[in-house]
Amino acid sequence: MLQEREVRPVGGDEDIPFHARVLTATNRNLEAEVEQRRFREDLFYRINVVTLHVPPLRARQGDILLLAQHFVRRIAQRISKPVKGFSSAAARMLLDYDWPGNVRELENCIERAVALCRLDEVTVDDLPTKVQEFHVTRIVIPAGPTASPDAMITMEEMERRYVRQVLEAVRGNKTHAARILGIDRRSLYRRLETPYQASRPVPPPDAQPVVADEQKASDE
């Protein structure tokens, strides 16, 4: 059909010429597929006339919000919701996510967000959990000065700072933060303690303040 540009209808006895432009798309390396005999070589050379390489969405960050805004307008109009755009935090998360499913995944994400949205803009809470958690996993602690060993911090302090950043990213939701970190809430609280707080003994309920004892001794 592609070679002769003719087609014979089912049940017919004559070939009918046709003129058509055939467009194909794939996310695989077809040359490698041909070499490994997973794709027909003759078909490959018949369709591989002009090749256009389209970078993945993660490599076209400037297109993400443009496409997302287009989907918001279209979906909001279809389901009659007054959603106009995104909060700044939600937009930042859309830009940070790597979109392995490309434009189709982005469209599904926006359709879900608009359906759940209760305001006139999509917020962080309306985005899928995987988009929110991907943003958190990319949080890094800025490197401090390392010219002097005195300026360096311990692993415990670095961990404590990271936990605090995760908590800040999820707006203080400790259950969500613990799930992202892969620990329980008790372990999360323990990691937030400073060495002084962790080592400080807890006085018994009937203990008298030290200051009061000192004052009593001085009075005697």
Throw out a few tags for this protein:
220 residues, mainly alpha, Helicase, Ruva Protein, domain 3, Arc Repressor Mutant, subunit A, 3 domains, two-stranded antiparallel ribbon, two-stranded parallel sheet, 11 helices, 50% helix, elongated, disordered C terminus
Number of helices: 11
Q: What is the straight-line distance between the termini?
A: 111 Å
Mean pLDDT: 78
Going across the major beta sheet, what is the strand order?
A: 1-2
Strand residues, percent: under 5%
CATH class of the largest domain: Mainly Alpha
Number of domains: 3
Category from helices, strands and their pairing: mainly alpha
CATH-scheme architecture of the largest domain: Orthogonal Bundle
Give the CA-based shape. Answer: elongated
Write down how many β-strands occur, each being a DSSP E stretch of 2 or more residues: 4
CATH topology of the largest domain: Helicase, Ruva Protein, domain 3
Q: What do these coordinates show?
A:
- By secondary structure, the protein is mainly alpha-helical.
- It has 3 domains: about 5-45, no CATH class; about 55-125, Orthogonal Bundle (Helicase, Ruva Protein, domain 3); about 150-200, Arc Repressor Mutant, subunit A (Orthogonal Bundle).
- It has 11 helices and 4 strands.
- The protein has helices at about 30-35, 40-45, 60-80, 90-95, 100-115, 130-135, 155-170, 175-180, 185-190, 195-200, 210-220, and strands spanning about 5, 15, 85, 120.
- A two-stranded antiparallel sheet has the order 1-2.
- A hairpin with an 8-residue loop joins strand 1 (about 5) and strand 2.
- Mean pLDDT is about 80; it is low at about 195-205 and about 210-220.
